[in-house]
Write a structure and sequence with these properties.
The complex is a heterodimer of chains A (about 325) and B (about 220). Chain A is built from 8 helices and 18 strands. Chain A is of the alpha/beta class. A 7-stranded parallel sheet of chain A has the order 7-11-6-1-4-5-12. Chain A is globular, with a radius of gyration of 22 Å. Chain A starts with a strand and ends with a helix. Chain B is an alpha/beta fold and about 220 residues long. Helix content of chain B is about 35%, strand content about 30%. Chain B has a 5-stranded mixed sheet with strand order 3-7-4-5-6, with helices on both faces. Chain B has a 3-stranded parallel sheet with strand order 1-2-8, with helices on both faces. In chain B, α3 crosses α4. Classes of the chains: A alpha/beta (about 325), B alpha/beta (about 220). The interface between A and B is large, with 101 and 74 residues. The structure holds flavin-adenine dinucleotide. Flavin-adenine dinucleotide sits at the interface of chains A and B.
Chain lengths: ~325, ~220
């Protein structure tokens, strides 16, 4: 097939987003399958450090758009400039991470470039004639495999976090090409006032080696002590899935997943959490996962080392008691 | 009704309470989706419109919505961040792009004042990062869960709403542009494979507790 596979690189505060390694390794794998070159596109300002790190990631080309106006992310400007850049580069396949930013701008880029966008892929396989993807449906309870054949001139896809492939061994130094952003004549319709990272009140769950996380299966705020007591008995920290923050039971810095923290503790105990892909994105790096969920078919069990398919209201008190006994 | 759409609707109701105006609930699909519109009616929307159009994928849905919204000319469009069935998370932004409107995704707060023409929006960027923007109206905002507390809808109100007539707009296939419709062919639907081999613990609660705490002590 030849041509190029382009990976869109996201970064914040000088650091790559968590998905970057996975994207680049998938990109390299696919590039080898179809004999294409692997390129990255990165937008921002003062990109030396990011470009330096990217240079060690076995890329053929790095395209940069490095201007002061991109210091902070603005969805309107970013959509326009990334569309123009991708249009110029004209790759066969563009890979994005399935992140908030991608979800915000990629559908609009696909309209601008008239290129189909396959979102939230778990796997992706490009051959000379077709593109095969695996995507979750129905909250991740089923997966579908779908084919795009023939592959149009340009396709875009976003990839969910998941298995991180082995480190990319650097075989060559990439060519670095600076792209200049075109000017926009229209009146801006979006003004960015501030961009901030959530502040924790002293607790950083990402540092805990044992995490007891609660989900909607806890049913009522009154049941929060069940995860608190277990965490305390085990010397760990508590965390939660999104509904508990939405309901105001716990503040946002306890949230694990795509919107919140990425954690990789030794032990992650998920109580009443279904295992939506957005939650798994934040905890799939845990060494030992224990799931307590009375639905034995819940997706969380895909990732669990140990499972307890019982009512948590009934089983957690027994586990707390046992943990307290063992620890005293 | 899709969970995040419930949040979008709840936010619309809250905005109307503060600012006035009218809310129109719009849903693309065949007769089966009317139930969702009855719920919206029961929650208090002013108008409910079913768009009779092909809805095989997000691009077609967005195109049909764009057709209708060109006629409705709303000041603000609220959508959910993703549907729980197809999970593509694209419809709202596709719609904005097709209409040429500014947009924001994963919105968790909207501040509007009468006659200003701009709204102030707080949204998530993932990994705990938030952004505050001002967006010129009309705009499309994809609302994230948690923006408002969800309110209970009494079944009696839904029964009442079912008696009302819904508006139907038809968008024939021929008037859609099929701009970037991915010609995806689904070849397989399957139950996800386990990534790890799970050992399920069973027995009495005490048996399970003893076994589990032992595993925890080994793993830490
Ligand atoms: C853009 C985007 C970003 C998101 N970011 C995040 C994120 O960062 N983190 C996150 O968590 N989610 C996130 N979500 C939401 C995610 O899609 C799910 O909706 C959410 O994770 C579900 O949380 P849950 O598992 O607690 O609830 P549910 O999916 O409702 O699951 C509850 C589980 O509890 C079990 N249960 C019920 N009763 C009991 C009982 N008595 N005993 C034992 N088990 C019981 C049920 O079987 C069920 O599996 C995001 C979604 C989007 C679209």
């Amino acid at each position: 097939m030849a041509g190029q596979i382009l990976v869109f690189i996201e970064h914040y505060d000088g650091e790559f987003r968590a998905i970057t390694q996975r994207l680049l390794s998938i990109g390299r794998e696919q590039a080898e399958c179809v004999d294409a070159r692997l390129a990255a596109l990165v937008l921002g300002h003062k990109l030396d450090r990011i470009v330096g790190s990217l240079s060690e990631m076995n890329l053929d080309t790095i395209f940069t758009v490095d201007e002061e106006q991109f210091e902070t992310y603005n969805p309107e400007i970013c959509t326009r400039v990334v569309s123009e850049a991708i249009g110029q580069i004209s790759p066969r396949l563009v890979l994005f991470g399935d992140t908030h930013m991608t979800r915000e701008i990629a559908p609009a880029i696909s309209v601008a470039l008239n290129a189909p966008f396959l979102s939230g892929c778990l796997e992706i396989e490009l051959t000379a004639t077709k593109l095969v993807v695996t995507q979750p449906k129905y909250s991740g309870s089923v997966f579908v495999r779908a084919e795009l054949e023939p592959v149009p001139g340009m396709v875009m896809a976003s990839v969910q976090s998941g298995v991180v492939h082995p480190q990319l061994v650097c075989k060559q130094l990439p060519e670095i090409i600076l792209i200049k952003a075109g000017t926009n004549n229209g009146e801006p319709r979006i003004r960015v006032l501030e961009t901030t990272a959530a502040k924790a009140d002293g607790i950083d769950i990402a540092k805990a080696s044992i995490i007891v996380a609660g989900g909607r299966g806890l049913k009522a705020k009154e049941n929060l002590p069940l995860i608190r007591d277990l965490a305390e008995a085990l010397g760990g920290a508590i965390a939660c899935s999104r509904p508990l923050c939405d309901l105001g039971w716990l503040p946002a810095h306890y949230l694990v997943g795509m919107s919140g923290k990425t954690v990789s503790p030794s032990i992650y105990i998920a109580c009443g959490i279904s295992g939506a892909t957005q939650h798994l994105a934040g905890m799939s790096g845990a060494k030992c996962v224990i799931a307590i969920n009375n639905d034995a078919s819940a997706p969380i069990y895909r990732l669990a080392d140990y499972g307890v398919a019982r009512d948590l209201l009934e089983i957690l008190p027994a586990i707390i008691k046992e943990a307290q006994k063992t620890n005293t | 009704m899709n969970e995040v759409d419930q949040y979008a609707l709840e936010e619309a109701l809250a905005m109307r309470k503060e600012l006035g105006g009218t809310i129109t609930a719009v849903c693309v699909g065949d007769l089966t989706c009317q139930e969702v519109l009855y719920v919206a009616k029961a929650k208090g929307v002013n108008r409910a419109i079913r768009v009779n159009a092909p809805c095989a994928n997000e691009v077609l849905i967005a195109e049909a919505l764009a057709e209708v919204f060109r006629q409705l000319k709303p000041d603000l469009v609220l959508a959910g961040v993703e549907s729980s069935d197809s999970m593509t998370g694209q419809t709202g932004i596709l719609l904005a792009a097709m209409l040429g409107l500014p947009f924001a995704y994963a919105v968790t707060a909207i501040e509007a004042r009468p006659n200003v023409g701009w709204v102030r929006v707080t949204k998530e960027l993932g990994e705990g990062i938030c952004q505050v923007l001002e967006i010129k109206l009309p705009a499309v905002l994809c609302v994230q869960s948690g923006i408002q507390p969800l309110k209970y809808t009494p079944p009696a109100k839904i029964l009442q709403a079912r008696k009302e007539l819904l508006e139907v707009y038809s968008v024939p296939e021929s008037s859609l542009q099929h701009s970037v419709v991915p010609q995806l062919r689904f070849t397989d639907v399957f139950k996800p494979q386990g990534i790890k081999r799970t050992q399920m613990l069973s027995g009495t609660s005490e048996d399970i507790a003893v076994a589990l705490v032992k595993k925890i002590m080994e793993a830490r």
